[in-house]
């Protein structure tokens, strides 16, 4: 399967609670923190919900 690297590039301060929870569920702890995930439909839905806060790269 394909993998993606997700990095938080914009703060979640001022975002909705559901967006903060989504970032936390992705495993991102703080600004500029990166995590790698296998691409699944559920994961891509989470990434699309907060795409304005993230930088996504294919690995």
Give structural notes.
- The chain is of the alpha+beta class.
- The chain has one domain (3-58): Ribosomal Protein L30, Chain: A (2-Layer Sandwich), CATH 3.30.1390.20.
- It has helices at 17-25, 41-49; strands spanning 3-8, 34-38, 54-58.
- It has a 3-stranded antiparallel β-sheet, with no helix packed on it.
- The longest helix has 9 residues, at 17-25.
- It starts with a strand and ends with a strand.
Return the CATH topology: Ribosomal Protein L30, Chain: A
Q: State the CATH superfamily name.
A: Ribosomal protein L30/L7
Q: What CATH architecture do you see?
A: 2-Layer Sandwich
For the record, the CATH class is Alpha Beta
Number of strands: 3
List the main descriptive attributes of the protein structure presented here.
alpha+beta, 59 residues, Ribosomal Protein L30, Chain: A, 3 strands, globular
């Amino acid at each position: 399967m394909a993998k993606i690297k997700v990095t938080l590039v914009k703060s979640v301060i001022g975002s909705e609670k559901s967006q903060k929870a989504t970032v936390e569920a992705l495993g991102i702890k703080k600004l500029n923190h990166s995590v790698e995930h296998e691409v699944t439909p559920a994961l891509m839905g989470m990434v699309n919900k907060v795409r304005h806060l993230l930088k996504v790269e294919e690995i």
